[in-house]
User: Fold this.
Amino acid sequence: MIRFLATRSYLLLAFACLPLGAQAQDVPPSGTPTVATEKPAPYDARLLRLSEILGSVHYLRTLCKDPAADTWRQSMQDLLDKEAKGEAQRRARMTAAFNRGYRTFASVYTACTPPAVVADERYRAEGATLASEITARFGN
Assistant:
C-alpha cells in the first residue's frame, strides 16, 4: 500500500504536468541475489494500460517535435522504479507495454499530422482519467 501511495502521488503529478516515457529493464549486477516474490497488485492491468499510453504519447510527442517529449520516457522510468523495483517480471511487462504503445504509433504515423495531434490529446486524456481512477480506487 505504501508503494502505491507513492505511485499515486507520482501519477497525479505526472499527468497534471502532462509529459512521460520508458527504458529497458534493469539487470542486477552479477552475484546479486534477486528476490522472486512478485505479488500482482490489484491495479496491475491498469498500470499496463497506462504504460502503453505513455509509450504512445512519448512517440507522438517526439514525432511532433515537442521539446519536452523525453520527459514522458523519464517519467515512465520513475514509474518503473517505484512500482516494479526488484520485480523483474513485472518490470518487463510494464516495459513491454510501453514499447508496444510506442511501436503501434510508429507503424501508423511518420509525420506530425492533425490526426496524430488528436491521438496524442486523446491518449493523454485517457491516461489522466486512468491515473485518477487508479488513485481513487486504490489510494486509500
Observations:
- The radius of gyration is 15 Å.
- Residues 54 and 99 are 9 Å apart (CA to CA).
- The helical segments are 2-17, 44-63, 70-83, 88-106, 114-138.
- DSSP finds five helices and no strands in the chain.
